[in-house]
Queue: 4 jobs
Job 1
Amino acid sequence: MSKTFVEVAESVGVDEKTIRNVFKDYVALKEREYQFETSKWLGIDEIHIIRRPRLVLTNIERRTIYDIKPNRNKETVIQRLSEISDRTYIEYVTMDMWKPYKDAVNPILPHAKVVVDKFHVVRMANQALDNVRKSLKVHMSQKERRTLMRERFILLKRKHDLNERESFLLDTWLGNLPALKEAYELKEEFYWIWDTPDPDEGHLRYSQWRHRCMSSNSKDAYKDLVRAVDNWHVEIFNYFDKRLTNAYTESINSIIRQVERMGRGYSFDALRAKILFNEKLHKKRKPRFNSSAFNKAMLYDTFNWYEVNDHDITDNFGVDFSTLIKNLEKGDL
């Protein structure tokens, strides 16, 4: 788990192919050994590693990685979800607006609510604003174009997060560019929808925003966002139930990319095993009490405290995000 196949082959004096075969058997053993606890809040996302998009499943409640699969195809998602024996325990599934995910989840988890990740939605508002900025550059001087390109991150930040200098630049731009001002205000108002904890208020804010957007000069820039919300309305506004997002899953993806960079030349199976089956990274919870052993002991009047406290029974929630980060920082992975 900590060395390359070549290093192991050289150290023990056997062919590298033998090491790969042993590793393959070892991974198959670990697949059977580690049955991670099912999450009430399951995250579905993808990550591009080793030149392909891969499926990542996370336990949002426990902040752990549940599984990584070689592709994100609908059939792969269906197969993996079908393998979860207690899948009725899953209450919410967060995802981005990729239809094959929803088409896979709905028949296998008909009881679970699909939640579209809020950050995928608001990101589209940022993209719409940035498209307006780009379209305005053709009418600017060379100096103005350079400034607006270099400082574009100011437009994408929330207004209340700007410092004094950034606020001054923003006010200057918006004062001189009415079209940019209108697009910027639409972006800020769209973010404002998600600031309320009240779902009814959220729906009302969106309705008002949509009306203003469709009657504005920026409607073409925001048309993709409006279409997306119209098509995924229920799933997007399910966010207000628990305010669940895939932000954690997105963070996991950046960490996995770090692991990939550290292990150039790994196959997908090797990289997956290195992350999933590293015992040091697992988040576990040991029950204080084995109720089944206690009930059995009382039934047969053979109470034994050592047997009741069964230290072999442990809940394993998968790879802990914070532990993974610490090991990466120390170079222990």
Note: The longest strand covers residues 41-49.
Job 2
Amino acid sequence: MSIEIKIPSIGESITEVTLTTWLKEDGEYVEEGDILCEIESDKATVELPAEESGVLTRSVDEGTDLEIGAVIGSLAPGEGAPAKKEESAPTKEAESAAPKASGAPSGGDKNYPSPAARKIMDEKGISASDVNGTGKDGRITKADAMSAEKSAPAPAPAKEASKPAPAIEAQVPSQGGERGVRREKMSRLRKTIASRLTEAKNSTAMLTTFNEIDMHWVMDLRKKYKEQFKEKHDIGLGFMSFFTKACAIALSEVPGVNAMIDGDEIIYHDYADIGIAVSTPKGLVVPNVRNAESLSLAQIEKEIKRLALKGRDGKLTLDEMSGGTFTITNGGVFGSMLSTPIINIPQSGILGMHNIVERPVAINGQVVVHPVMYTALSYDHRIVDGKESVTFLYRIKELIEDPARMLLDV
């Protein structure tokens, strides 16, 4: 008796997912625990394992949007792989139909593509002969398919006698370069990002205040102790830990920035779960550093690194990306000088960090050149007043320009 394969519940707020990639072929025998496919929600990508061993029957194509509980296939219990049918001479109909059905060579061919690679090749309209497989035994990987281009068609033979081109064609000048257009379906994660950012712009009274921070002293401190810090804690000392710690302190002093609106009520938090915006190949994700106010700089650095690596590999859990109270985004790593970040609703504030540039500054009446960073705080004016926002951002400036304040709590 066949066992139905259903989309499992992967979070309370998630009602729909997208089946992005089948990892097993239709009719293939799979063992219990083998990963059948990848499912993408608006939060993360989840792998779906086989609950029992058996022969797989797929009933849903890749790229299909599905509700929780939807049936995507079945497993017919049995032992071992199903017996292969004896090979026979293919008919003309089979020969002509096979390329159209698969769009790729057979499984025994060295250039056999993976399921993800086959999907990309079908979208591009390219065959295995157009792709140079770099995987094991020449197998075509997803990266191979993404970088491949369709072979140029052979030039058509010149006609013996051709009619003169219409006058309108003769007036069109020849243009150099290609003008290709590519159309791709938005991923569920990208659609969710677009929806949430639009909602944030439309549902909040968002305003941004700016300040500049002299990074000279914190950079000197980092330079002086970075080797000892790494030797003791086995982690590099970056700037994100300083800003995360500074934000945690400022949030405790200006609680409105750490609050959120829920109907007619304001929810204040006595803790700081600070989200760190991480750019991944699939889009922007915001995992949270829990209880940042109680962590040391070394603990913050380790947690940020752990979350960033999981985000890059698409392994972040729903718990790690939910429930934040404030967010930090660092556009400076890409060279941004200044920006107005959008609030990560339902939070009421987000800090934007930018690149560090040497600029002339006045110190004790003397003009010197110091590394300076522009910072931006976007906040919801419905809950955070101008005085609170400026006080919060200036407090961060004080803590970064004099890092000893973080240790002395002054």
Note: Residues 246 and 396 are 6 Å apart (CA to CA).
Job 3
Amino acid sequence: MKKIHFSKDVVMASIIVILLLVVGVGGGRWWGQQSVVAVPPAEAQLVVPEQQVLYWYDPMVPQQRFDKPGPSPFMDMDLVPMYANMDSTSNAVKIDPLITQNLGVRLATVTRIPLSTQVEATGVIGFNERDVAVVQSRSSGFVERVWPMAPGDLVKAGAPLVEMLAPEWTAAEYELLALKSLGDDSLVAAARQRLRLLGMPNAMIAAVEKSGTVRSSFIVTAPISGVVESLDTRLGMAVSVGQTVARVRGLSTVWMEVAVPEIYAGVLRSGAAAEIRLAGFPGQMLAGTVTTILPMLNEITRSLRVRIELVNRDGSLRPGLSGHVLLRVSTSESVLALPTEAVIRSGKRSMVMVAHEAGKFEPVEVEIGREIGAQTTIMAGLNEGDKVVASGQFLIDSEASFKGIIARSSSEAPSTPALVLHEATAIISELAPGEATLDHGPFKTLAMPGMEMIFPLAKPELVNGLKVGDRVSVAVSQRDAGLFVEKLNKIGGGS
């Protein structure tokens, strides 16, 4: 054998390479350890711990439990694990407290508040229909003078409107003066009464007796202050007894008529306080009370007419002005309420997420009432003191929907567990009394792969209108006897 001789330089170079390799491996291990230690504590806390498996089971035979994983002896599938934080009969979703804190979940308490109602509506100011004066002629005559006035003008009480000549008064006045000179009091009284019947005011009769002068013309004045609605006289026209000379609407008080939706018909009462803000007077608030609730409902707008009487001291409240009205109705009764933001509304129902201990949240269907400020009244579904999610509830609701948890009905007792549904799509392979053979896709919330199998029906009428080959959405519940079909809805024809 030929011996190989290495020079000293080659041996020294080999030793240096080996030392560098040893240093590199050791430094890599040290650097890896330092990298692990350098993980921020906040990130390390977000690591979800491994869930504890209680046992394994077959979803079709859930009452049979196994202590280790493997193939199912009943079906051609693997056994499914049941974790410690999973409960097939629970209607709550569990979320780690750290995650709820990061999501900004905020809770609110269901409390009992005084039952009061705030109604917001619009209204329009109009005349007080009870404050109207009609001026009529009490005797036949002729118009000798008309003051310059037209409908819509403002008048003061006692302001002259027209001057009239009443020829019928002349003979009766001469008779009164003649009898007065004779000193027969009974005849004088009869003459006065005749003048009153002819329409002469008492003040004019007294003036005729005092002056001894016949006065056949008189001035018609406005009996109240307000707006001239009509002035149906012209210079020289003849006026008969009872003919309307003028019509005046008063402005000392005005009415605001408000259209209130019919849903408040059962709570509105006369005397309710009203706050009015007119568009023409920004920044000003008028206080009033409901005086009348008209009995007739407007069939077109489905609203009630509510009347509020307002004092118009300076005449600034002009008919036709519109404004925003806030009606407050208070009673001695109380009702459960929670923040309006806590209610999850859909097209057909309303839900809240009720918070339980150990980070569990349960979707509960509630029957809501009226809104009072920032709160919504609860008619059924919750109890006083319940904790509900007021912020972040939509994320929790999404998690509950993903796990197949349905909301507890408002008519159910709080202690009654609701069914947990697991959903998939399927094609109907065969139908038989009380059961259906489905070629279904995977049930993700059961960790169950797709296959063809026979399902018992929770209700026989679930298959009404369905036939073999129909494509359906199926929802099953897990009971002691196995999986049962709870919902079966057609979504298309078979493939």
Note: Confidence is low (pLDDT under 50) at residues 1-6, 20-49, 413-417.
Job 4
Amino acid sequence: MKNWVLYLIILAAGIAVGLGSRSFMSSEPSAESAETTSEYSANDGHGNDTSGASTLDWCAEHRVPESQCTLCHPELIAEFKAKNDWCGGHGLPESHCRLCNPDIHFPQEPLQTVALIEPIRTSVFYPANVVDCATNNSIIQFASVETATRAGLSVEPVLNEQSEAFIEAPAEIRFDDTKTTTLTITVPVLVARWFVEPGDRIFSGQKLAELESPDIARLQADYLEASARHAVSTQELARAKSLRERDLLSQSEYEKLEADFRAAEAIFAGVRGLLLTAGFAATDCDDLLASKQVSQRYTLRATSNGLLVERRAPVGELLEAGRPLAMIGDPSEVWIEAQVRERDLAEIHEGQAVEFSIDGNAVERVAGKVIWVAQYLDPKTRTGTVRAKLLSAPGGVKANLFGRAKIYTDDDNTLAVVSRDAVQWEGCCNVVFVQEAVDRYRPRKVSIARGDNDHYRVLSGVAPGEMVVVDGSYLLKTELKKGSIGAGCCGLEAR
């Protein structure tokens, strides 16, 4: 019993001593706690410096106090190890290791103000990388090689693409519009018979078709009447001129006869022009004057040499005035017409080389040169026409062939190419993760451009041959965003 009483007396005395010591420490802080209090006194309680002096003891690069930074002052390492304050896995003091302790905060640590300085900008194009961000000088370090292997990452090399800068678009071989003639008539007409077939080579003046028109007989009669009046007025003017020379006709009478002659001449020329626009040839007009035979049937003749490209008038159908009957083109003068997408049109200008290949037969190709670029877009397809003149063409290339055109915009160049799965947008930058070791990966900012369905072209950031993460790149992006995938698994070091 006495032993129990003695034990209780000793325990009560120990508690009293402890409370007295705690009260003493609260009233008189030690040098170390005084220093800590001084640091907090210059802080507003949220980590913002209010005195302007505490930020002088801050290493912004490594996010620890400058006076305690072992990366800047390696001589301090021994002191921390002596205090048993050392994280061997990451080579930092345990009290500084954010990988093991992500909630570490120092009183003099400034608030992050990047979001206030750099407003978010949205765009439908590939966004530009931010110059300064958390990605700079970052490393993702796995705790061990086994951990990295279990993460299931796969890497591929950055490819070296020797490419030619070109724009590809659907295209068609067409006759040169400046060397193409469309045959039309100005009166209602019916085609009684065609003498030629599409694809036939024809010559100027050759018979093409036999036509019938209810208006052509009237025009022929008007032409004969105008011709007769023109002949009478010509004779009267010649007689009046003779009389005037002998002063047997007044000047006013002579001028009246001369005006009548000019009017008859104009009427005659006008009716002749109507016959020519209705499909008559000059020789047909002369034959009409000689025969004086009026008929509603007449012959349509070619007005130029070339190839009969198309017959648009069916036999036996009465066509209204102005309808085209046929088209004559020059087979030696053809164009390549490509329909280029709106986004590519600005890169094309006159003089660029063009290559055309027939659909299904890419071996046969023809070369050309851009001669015209449309300054407007088709409102339905949102494409612009690019026209090129053929420079060389094999015999198998004919008008109205469809195919693909390559328009070369620049000289050949070498580009780095990465898989689309390797590129991640981490909030402010496009990044890929370059493998430095089996358990270490470094995020690298890249500028990307359009490629194919599986790859991006990389304008800057990586070089051909470097190994980048493909499968698992999103996992590493998550690591960048939150600092750690799992405690002790892997982490983010800023060096």
Note: Residues 4-55, 113-124, 483-495 have pLDDT under 50 and may be disordered.
